[in-house]
Amino acid sequence: MSVRRRTVLGAGLTVVPALTSGVAWAGGEGDDLRVTDPGAYVSFTGGAFSLVGAPVVVSAGDHPGVVRVAGDLRDDIERVTGVRPGSAVARFPVLVGTIGRSPLIDGLIDSGKLDVTGVRGRWETSLQTVVDHPMPGVERAFVIAGSDPRGTIFGAYDVSYGIGVSPWYWWDDVPPVHRDEVWVRAGRFTQGTPAVRYRGIFINDENPALGTWAPAHFGPGKAAGYPGGFNADFYARVFEVLLRLKGNYLWPAVWGRAFAEDDPENHRRASEYGVVMGTSHEAPMMRGIEEWNRHATAGRDPYGGTGEWSYRRNAQAIRAYWRAGIQRMVDQGFEGVVTLGMRGNGDTSLPDGDGIELMQEIIAAQRQIIEEVTGKPAAATPQVWTLYKEVQRYWDRGLRAPDDVTVVLTDDNWGNIRKHPAEARPGGYGLYYHFDYVGVGRNYKWVDTANLRNVWDQLHQAHAYGNHGLWVANVGDLKGNEAPTEFFLNYAWNPSGWPLERLKEWERRYARQNFGPEPGQAAEIASILAAYGSLQARRKPELLNRRITLADGKVVYDDQQSPYYFGHRELERVTREWQELGRRADRLARRLPAPVRDAWFELVGYEVTATANLYALREAEFTNLLYARQGRAATNDRAAEAEAALAKDFALADRFNSTVANGKWRGFQTQPHIDYGDVDRYGPNAGWQQPEKDNVALPDVLFPAVRRIEVPEAAELGVSVDGSEDAGEWWPGDGAVREASLAEFSPYQTRPQQYVEIFNRGRTPFEYRVECSVPWLLVDRPRGRVEQQVRLEVRVDWSRAPAGRSEGALTVSGAGTSVRVGCTAVNPPRRGLRGFVEAGGYVAIDAEHPDRAVGEWRRIDGIGRTGAGMTPWPVTGPRRTPGGSSSPRLEYEVSLLTGPGEVTVWAYVSPRNPALPTGGLRYAVSFDEAAPQAVDINVGADDGLMNTAWARNTSDNVNATATKHSVTKIGVHRLKFWMVDPTVVLQRLVIDTGGLPALYLGPLESRRL
Question: How many other C-beta atoms are found inside a 10 Å radius of the C-beta of residue 799?
Answer without folding.
Answer: 6
